[in-house]
Write a structure and sequence with these properties.
Length: 304
Amino acid sequence: MQNPENKKMAGGSVVDEMRGAQEPATEAYRAYDEEQVRSGNKAVRQHRTTGVNWIGLYTMLRREVKRTLRVSIQTLAAPVISAALYIFIFGTVIGTKIDDFAGVPYISFVFPGVLMLSIINASFSSASSALFFMKFTRGIEEILITPFSYLEMLVGFVGSAVARAMIVAFLILIVGVLFGAVTLTNPLMFIFYVAAISAIFAMLGIIVALWAEGFEQLQMLNTFVITPLTYLGGIFYSITMLPALAAQITVLNPFFYFADGIRGAMIGYHEANQLVGLVITVGLVLVLGTLVTQIFKRGWKIRA
């Protein structure tokens, strides 16, 4: 019969290994997996059968959507009201003093940029706040011991943030329709750019949430990098209005290509090279996806 003290020590070592204090507890995970299969754990059986934990992914998505709806004043109403004010001021008040641009009213030219600003904030805030609070409350440890691969963890967090951004985008589109600012020349490309841009900033939000030690650090990237680059990315003006040097600098700003992609999908007008925009967007999704997956795998700022 095993000594209770030895049993306690053995159990402690397994926990330490699972938290990353020693080598990965491969055998412990395998034994746990077999035990869950025998006990009828549907998620584990499904993961072993299909290779994907669909139940776990659905659970993460449902939890974040419910969290979004639970504080809808902050997560949904606030960005919609903010976007409505931007559209009213820049589109209706100022836009009436500006001639049509690229064959469309100024309000239609500005609207895609306002939409992009809102989905960036929504996706970044969703991913960063969700992971930060999970890390703060040690809820991330529940994710680590579930039958999730690192890629599935990425899909769960990013998918939840993209879902919130899509809801915000839909609501802002309704506001835009009321102002007569919405035109969709290529709906498929519109959905692609909204989803891709949301995914990019969701993954940036994940990285910031892991790095941040407090609430002030959680907003540093958004305040000092994302917001300035967004405003300087041509969301309220055309690059043709800028001096030559400023126009050349703007072309180096990836946010310019994000705004141009959504604008092109909506009103059919492009100021940037479409191929370059696609390469930058898809490239950032792949690079950040690989980076975040490796961060999860290494357990940076996750495992105690």
